[in-house]
Write a structure and sequence with these properties.
This protein has 69 residues and is an alpha+beta fold. It has two helices and four strands. Helix content is 20%, strand content 30%. A four-stranded mixed beta sheet has the order 3-2-1-4, with helices on one face. The longest helix has 10 residues.
Length: 69
């Protein structure tokens, strides 16, 4: 499709344009050192703050999307 998943920095810039993921969360690019161990990172917006989290890559797979550029 020609898109790339957002980095944490791009995700934070997106949040400056509007209030996204207030009830959901989105996967963001994960360093290969984390992916090698089966992990992944995601972000969301709660309490007017952008949070950066980690979890297993297969965790909540059906309920979490991603944002791309």
């Amino acid at each position: 499709m020609g898109i790339e998943i957002l980095t944490e920095e791009q995700y934070r810039k997106l949040q400056e344009l509007g209030k996204f993921d207030q009830k959901t969360s989105s996967w963001v690019q994960t360093p290969s050192s984390i992916r090698e161990h089966g992990g992944a990172v995601f972000c969301d917006r709660r309490y007017n703050t952008v949070f950066y989290y980690h979890n297993g890559a297969d965790s909540y797979y059906a309920a979490r999307g991603f944002r791309g550029v």
